[in-house]
Each structure stands twice: as C-alpha cells, then as structure tokens.
Amino acid sequence: MKTSKLTVSDVLKRKHFEHIHIAAGHQGLNRTVKWVHVVEVAKISNLLKGKELILSTGVGWKENKSLFMSFVQQLIECDASGLCIEIGTYASSIPQEVIDLANECQFPIILFLKEVPFVEITQDIHAYLINQHYQIISNLESYSQELNKKLLSIGHYDEILKFLHHYLGHQVIFKINGKEVELVPKYVKRSDEEQQSFDSALYPQQKIASQSIRILGNEYAELSIVSIDKEINEFDLLILDRTATALAQHLLRDLYVEEKKRAQEHEWLKSWLEGEHTSEAIFDYLADHETELRFKGGFVSIFRFKSSKQYLNLDITYFKLLCRTIFEQQGFSTFPVDFRNSVIFIMVNKRDLKTWKYRMKMGIKYLLKSDFVNKKRVPKFLIGVGKFVENLSHMDKSYRTALETIKIQNQLGEKANSYFYEDLHIYRIISLIHKCSDLHEVVMEYLEPVIQYDKKYNGKLMETLKVYLECNGSKKETARKLFVVRQTLYHRIQKLEKLLGDDFMHPEKRLAIEFMIKAYEYFMPNNETQYVQNDQ
Length: 536
What we know:
The protein is α+β, with helices and mostly antiparallel strands. It folds into 4 domains: 8-126, HprK N-terminal domain-like (Udp-n-acetylmuramoylalanyl-d-glutamate--2,6- Diaminopimelate Ligase, Chain: A, domain 1, 3-Layer(aba) Sandwich), CATH 3.40.1390; 154-258, GAF domain (Beta-Lactamase, 2-Layer Sandwich), CATH 3.30.450; 265-424, Alpha-Beta Plaits (2-Layer Sandwich); 435-523. The chain has 20 helices and 13 strands. The chain has helices spanning 8-11, 65-77, 96-104, 118-151, 158-168, 192-201, 234-263, 266-273, 279-289, 308-313, 316-329, 356-369, 371-375, 395-412, 426-436, 439-457, 461-470, 475-482, 486-500, 507-523, and strands spanning 20-24, 35-38, 52-56, 82-86, 109-112, 171-176, 182-184, 208-215, 218-226, 298-305, 332-339, 342-349, 381-385. Strand 8 and strand 9 (218-226) form a beta hairpin. The chain is elongated, with a radius of gyration of 36 Å. The two termini are 47 Å apart. It comes from Parageobacillus thermoglucosidasius. Residues 461-519 form the PucR C-terminal helix-turn-helix domain.
C-alpha cells in the first residue's frame, strides 16, 4: 500500500520541529498519530479518544508538579501519542518524576526550545492526515472496482487471492471449512529466521489479520493476511474486508450453480434411495463429486413441510444450500432429492462413526437458529433421521426408517421427543405391530375400563396409572409427582385394581399395560401434529 501510518518520529521531521529536545520516552517515538490537539487544561481524560499528539504551553499546570504529573498520567491512560511542550512562557523545566514516568511508559515528551505557532503545526499535520485518509478512500475504491470487474470474469477464487497478494504484498492464507489451508504465494523462499517468524504468524500475532467469510449466516471460510516485515495497517484491514465480501459473493454464486446442477442429478439419487445402485456405482458417483473419498457410512434425513403450498412458496434451492453449508461443516456430504413436499438428504459421513449423531444434532440446532429459517419465515416442517448404515448401497434401509420416523412424529405430535429413528424405541415396535394387526383393539382390551371411567367421571386414573408405573409402584414418589395426598392416591389405586384386576402390577401384566399405554398415546384421537417451527 502506498500510504502508511504517521508516527511521532515522522511528525518530528516536519516543519516547526527544527528546535526541539526529546526529554523522555525515546522508545515510544514509533507511536501512531491520528490527530493533533492543543490542550491548556489539566483535566483532559474525557476529551481524548487515543492516538492524539498533544501540544501545550503548560499554562494548565504552570509550576504545579502534582498537576503536571496527573496531566501526564491521564494522557498515558488515554493512549495519547505524545506531549509537546513549549518551554519558556509557562513551563521552564520538566520534573524528574514526570520524566521517569514517561520513560517507564515509553511516552514521548518533546520540548520546543523556541516559540512555535501551534495553529500552523495543527494545520500542517491535519492536512497531511486528511490527504492520507482521502488517498486511502481513493485507493480502496479503485481496488473495489478492479475486484468487481474480476468477479464478472474469473473462474476460480484463486484469482482473487492472487490479486489480494499482488496488491498488498502480504502472504495470503485461505481456508474453507473442512478443507486444507491454501497459501498465496504457495512457496516463498525465506531465511531460517523469516521462516520461523512466518510459522509463528500462523497463530494469533500482531502481524496477522483474519476475516471470516459467512454465507447464508454461517461461517464458511476464513481469509487471513500475514506480514513479516511490517505492521498490518488500517488500509490493509479495509482491503481484507472488501476481499472477504467479494469471496463470499463468488463462493455463494458457485454454490448456487452447483446446487442447480445437483438438481439435474435428481433421478440418479432417487434410484440410490430405492436401493438400485451397487457399491461400485455409488463409489464412482462420489468420486466425481468429492475430492476426498474417506466415507464412513451414512444415513437419510427428511425435511417434510406441512403442506405442498408452503413447500412451493419456499426458495428450495436456498434451503438446500443452507442445509448443505451447515451439515458439511459437521462432517457430512449432502445429496438432496426433492419429493412432493419434502427435501430428502442422503448424508454421507466423513468423520468418526461414534460422533455422527451428535454432529447431526448440532447441525439441526444451527439450522433451526439460522437467520434464513427465522427471518425468512420458513414454514413449519418435520425432521426425520433414518437408521445409520455402514454400507452406502443399503441407503434404502435408512430411507425407509426416516420415512417411518416422519410417520411416527406425525402421529405422536408434541410427544415425539427425537428426530432420530433409533431414539423412538417402543414407538417403532408399536408402528410395526399396527401394520400387521389391529393393535387399537388390543389396547382397548386392556385400557378401556380406565378410559371409560375417566370420561364418565372426569377422573384422572389414566394419568395416575402412567405415573404409578413410571415410579415403579412407589406410592410416595407417585403422590409427589401428581401433587396429591397419600389418601387420594390410595383411593385411585383401589379403583385401578377394581378396573384392571388386583394383579395389574404383576411383572408380565404390568409390562403389557405399559406397552398399551404407549400404544394408546400413539393412537390417541385429536392429536395435533407438532411441527418444528422457528421462534418468531
């Protein structure tokens, strides 16, 4: 960059600083100067923002050593750049205590040995700073225009990285989540000392600056610049920010185009869900779409919207793109298939088998909290995650279990407490039995007396029965959970014994009754489906 920061040392080389003496703080002459103030009062802390060079005649403290000490202390605490004092009119010397404090804090104190026009000093330096700021804006605008032109023609983001390196001269580091770090230039010959400095710069240092690249509200990549021989200045940070924005636009465009291309592969993926492809065919397909072939099984997840109308009104391409960016960060390759009012994802696992479920839960959590789901008012939807399969040619098994999960969730409504097929346990058995026989009739055989009693007398025997079984027959615990006195509970248990038989807590009969209660909840009439909905 053609502009650089102005330091105290640079100021001392300008006009009106010919006759000066540096009384203290020699090691702080590299402090940045962003503005110049003339100050003649002792209380200054509420007037400064940092990086100001202070000009003073000393009238604010005159010969009062304690006031002078307090004044300098305030300047140091406010991160002022330095203090220039005109000697002779109101101040004749600098107390040793002040010099010691300034040296300790590397705070420059400069003495004008001859009278100088403060107004001309401020005009000169302010003009320089304003011109420099204008130059920064001009150069930034020029860079942005060139960058926008490149965005219209480039084929790969590597050209943006090279342009950034060429413009600033810094080493460029770029990393997309889940991929290897990219360096521009890829290799720079350095001395051993420089290489050691560069290696250490890969960790947080003063000479490295980073900018996250967010796509659809999620962190997708990170762009960094590293300087070996000079500090990274404000202009570098502005250029870095503009480049990160351009990269986000380019990457989003590529992802969108890729998502459109994926839509054309819908039929092949649909056949995969139906179990029509061999392991070899699946491997060949993945080899054409993935740079790394380290797959460790997979599963199917279904996102079903409440109605076809809501599905059609949604930008499905963006929804699939959002899911892809989220779940790929969790270690899954996603292959979407649209079907009626659902988006079905074939999820190929690329990380440890033991963590797939936790990572999927985190991905769902991020999806439901995303700006796109909340601010775009995405309609309600169910989520069903099928059985994990280690052989990718058996994805049809996971697909069937994902469909079963959606069916169970739709039936249970708000009582469904998991998106995962493997967590539904007893409800999977209930659904399977119901397919083969009239399970509802069997349920009523066991529970109808209790159900009819509750309807007739507006009682709470079903609730009592359920809690009593959950508490393993502990009357004390049951009474506590139901918020009733012991006598009330004893009365209800007597009613249950009368309706169900005094052997209803016998192990085999108790197990059957517990199963029937779960089945009754599954078949309960007027059960409103609880769809996943974003918080409004």
